[in-house]
């Protein structure tokens, strides 16, 4: 009985698992194919060609465009929401 219990518990023991050298390679390849520019984090930023005065005037012009309200739009609603009709009539 003791031998049987020892053999049963021995079968449940975990063995040390060592992954294969290529374990996870498919995930790394999938991530690599989804990156647009792999050197982007280490690349030197390009100059935009715009100085501060031009950029500030562009932002000011953009923000000023919201100060003038757009012209109202005339909408012609015929029979919509008037409550007139044969809804529920039998």
Describe the structure.
This protein is mainly alpha-helical. It has one domain (2-67). The protein contains three helices and no strands. It has helices spanning 2-12, 25-34, 52-64. The longest helix is centred in the middle third of the chain and has 13 residues, at 52-64. The radius of gyration is 36 Å and the shape is elongated. 0% of the residues are buried.
Shape: elongated
**Helix-residue proportion:** 25-40%
Q: Segments where pLDDT lies below 50 for 5+ residues?
A: none
The major beta sheet can be summarized as:
none
Total count of helical runs of at least 4 residues: 3
Index terms:
90 residues; 3 helices; 0% strand; mainly alpha
Give a brief rundown of this model.
By secondary structure, this protein is mainly α. Helices cover about 40% and strands about 0% of the residues. The protein has one domain (about 1-65).
SSE topology:
Elements: H1 2-12, H2 25-34, H3 52-64
């Amino acid at each position: 009985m003791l031998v049987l219990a020892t053999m049963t518990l021995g079968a449940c023991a975990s063995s040390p698992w060592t992954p294969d050298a290529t374990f996870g390679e498919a995930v790394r390849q999938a991530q690599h194919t989804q990156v647009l520019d792999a050197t982007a984090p280490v690349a030197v930023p390009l100059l935009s060609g715009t100085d501060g005065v031009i950029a500030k005037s562009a932002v000011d012009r953009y923000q000023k465009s919201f100060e003038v309200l757009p012209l109202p739009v005339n909408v012609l609603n015929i029979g919509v929401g008037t409550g007139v009709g044969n809804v529920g009539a039998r």
